[in-house]
Design a protein that fits this description.
Shape: globular
Largest sheet: 2 strands, antiparallel
Number of strands: 2
Radius of gyration: 22 Å
Number of helices: 12
Length: 237
């Protein structure tokens, strides 16, 4: 499936290749939300040999990873880019300058198209109106900049909004939550004092089939894994 992405300067990439028969993954290009547990499992798998023993400890990690992966919700962060060279020109220009507020008519003139023709192309190729498609691009740029540590104020200015409140309103309409809540929920997997499941932790570490494979998980990864399997372990006790 042809696709592409752009990576911000502070990004760290890990590629996870999943056999189509191994899990019920989406059949179209999309962005998935990543839980803290899945984040840790992917990092752990990246340290293991790609051709691992299907009956060994790494296979146990892979099984948990796939179970978590198929439960992840789809994020609304996909930007449809089509074969239309005109539309790609507009997308590239907006990525370079997301504060560009030209109207549909002005963009149509810039790429030598009629206004209605451009609107029809955008709707037919992306399934979105021009304004919704441009907003989707701005959301993606905003998340990239906020993830890089930029303030909401600076991001709203970079996207050409006259006020921070206008930017936050757009963000909430698109993703259902404010920028602050969006990013705080991504950190919600970090447990606070007293939340460690010590009994589950001990049970996990006593399980020979997973103990060695899980040895590289961070403390946060252990906390998430403990919550994930604690009910099953208690049922077996």
């Amino acid at each position: 499936m042809p696709h592409s992405n752009r990576v911000s300067g502070n990004a760290s990439l890990l590629f996870l290749y999943v056999d189509m028969d191994a899990a019920s993954v989406p059949q179209e290009c999309c962005t998935l939300s990543i839980s803290p547990l899945l984040h840790e499992l992917i990092h752990r798998m990246a340290t293991l040999p790609p051709l691992y023993d299907p009956d060994g400890p790494p296979a146990q990690i892979a099984a948990v990873l796939l179970n978590e992966l198929i439960a992840m919700p789809t994020e609304r962060l996909h930007l449809p880019i089509t074969r239309s060279s005109k539309l790609r020109m507009i997308a590239d220009a907006l990525m370079d300058n997301p504060a560009d507020r030209r109207t549909v008519a002005e963009w149509a003139q810039a790429v030598a198209l009629g206004e209605r023709t451009l609107m029809r192309i955008v709707l037919a190729e992306t399934g979105m109106t021009f304004s919704r498609w441009r907003q989707q691009l701005q959301i993606i740029v905003a998340i990239q900049k906020l993830s890089a540590g930029n303030t909401v104020q600076s991001v709203s200015e970079a996207l050409g909004y006259e006020s921070v409140s206008a930017f936050i309103t757009m963000f909430k309409k698109a993703l259902g939550k404010s920028p602050a809540r969006y990013f705080s929920e991504r950190e919600a997997g970090q447990a606070g004092p007293g939340e460690t499941c010590r009994e589950t932790n001990c049970k996990l570490r006593r399980m020979p089939e997973v103990r060695d494979a899980l040895n590289g998980l961070s403390q946060r990864g252990w906390l998430e894994l403990e919550r994930f399997v604690s009910d099953d372990l208690d049922a077996e006790a």
